[in-house]
Design a protein that fits this description.
Blueprint (H helix, E strand, L loop, with lengths): L2 E3 L7 E2 L28 E7 L5 H12 L4 E3 L8 E8 L13 E10 L1 E3 L8 E4 L7 H8 L4 E5 L8 E2 L2 E2 H6 L9 E16 L2 E11 L4 H12 L3 E11 L2 E2 L6 H6 L2 E2 L2 H8 L2 E3 L2 H8 L4 E2 L9 E4 L5 E8 L2 E7 L2
Parallel strand pairs: 5-14, 17-19
Antiparallel strand pairs: 1-17, 2-16, 3-5, 4-5, 6-13, 6-14, 7-8, 9-12, 10-11, 12-13, 14-15, 18-21, 19-20, 20-21
């Protein structure tokens, strides 16, 4: 009979990489050393991304550090933003699309009194207004309708595709882009601090939200609600699903000592876990559906062999459990 265990915290495991992979390589287009031996780096790498780096930059550097082209990410961060970026290495790239990383947390600063074309500090200022008369109470009151289950219009300068072309590319080409509102959940939108300087007001906030939420759009919408415009001047992601800044490593740290969260530990931190008996585990190895096995959860469940080997993600479908992805 299967036994169910709660998710456990992940652990980092250092990977002994060849010296040439640990060099300080600043050429963004450099190729992986094809003569270096393969390394046991399969797993998740939780990066504390620095400002000025694109998510693609981080993936490219990690490919060189891990000596593999099989690196992907589970959700991007804008170049201006810093903080938690979850990467999959090797076989773990297949895990990224299934990870239950729906909720995220951020620390951010919103500037009221200025609007920009990108809704953040990287874009040109397109409108200004005097926000100096706004009170703290007015700011908090305007944040309330932006909290909970809301419909949010994403920022126009985003990676959302419009008729097959990224919205940001259309904006840069001079096109006017109107995106449709989409449902998101903002479970927390709280004021940390308020600072005033001349005609602008800087508001430090904490945001907890579902995947697909644009914090830049929250800044824009707060400014619009107060009648003065607004944009984001700082964004730091502090949590993605079960992974926080405490789990993250800077690229400099990974350069000196490459480490990853093994797949078994990653799924234990991200999914409900069921341990099977050996007979049922063998059925899973062949990708068979499982009759009479109650996984106890509607979504994907990580199934393990008796010896602790991670086998697959399964989910209940009617009276049987069917494979979502098999990893053995």
């Amino acid at each position: 009979m299967p036994t169910t265990t709660p998710p456990a915290r992940e652990r980092w495991v250092s990977v002994d990489l060849p010296a040439e992979n640990r060099r300080a390589d600043t050429a963004q287009g450099a190729e992986t050393d094809v003569n270096a031996p393969p390394t046991p780096a399969d797993g998740l790498v939780i990066v504390d991304k620095a400002g000025g780096w694109t998510s693609h930059d981080v993936v490219a550097r990690t490919r060189r550090l891990a000596n593999t082209k099989k690196v992907g990410h589970a959700g991007t961060l804008d170049p201006m933003a810093t903080g938690v970026l979850v990467l999959g290495v090797g076989r773990a790239t297949r895990l990224l699309g299934h990870l239950q990383l729906a909720d995220k947390e951020y620390e951010a600063t919103i500037r009221l009194g200025e609007s920009t074309v990108t809704d953040d500090a990287e874009g040109d200022v397109v409108a200004t207004a005097d926000a100096s008369q706004l009170t703290d109470a007015q700011i908090r009151a305007a944040m309330q309708p932006l909290t909970g289950d809301i419909r949010q219009v994403p920022t126009a300068v985003s990676a959302i595709k419009v008729d097959g072309k990224r919205a940001y590319a259309r904006v840069r080409a001079g096109e006017s882009v109107e995106l449709k509102a989409r449902p998101v959940t903002v479970s927390a939108f709280d004021v940390r601090d308020v600072r005033r300087a001349g005609t602008v007001v800087d508001v430090d906030v904490h945001v907890a939200c579902s995947t697909g939420t644009y914090v830049r759009a929250l800044a824009r919408d707060l400014g619009e609600a107060l009648g003065v415009g607004g944009h984001l001047t700082m964004l730091r992601r502090t949590r993605v699903g079960g992974f926080t800044l405490d789990d993250a490593r800077s690229l400099e740290h990974l350069e000196a000592e490459f480490a990853s969260v093994p797949m078994a530990d990653a799924v234990r931190a991200s999914f409900p876990v069921v341990t099977l008996d050996e007979s049922t585990a063998q059925d899973v190895r062949y990708g068979r559906k499982l009759a009479g096995v109650d996984l106890g959860d509607a979504g994907p469940v990580a199934v393990f062999a008796p010896d602790g080997e991670f086998l697959a993600l399964y989910e209940n479908r009617g009276d049987v459990a069917r494979p979502v992805a098999v990893f053995v």
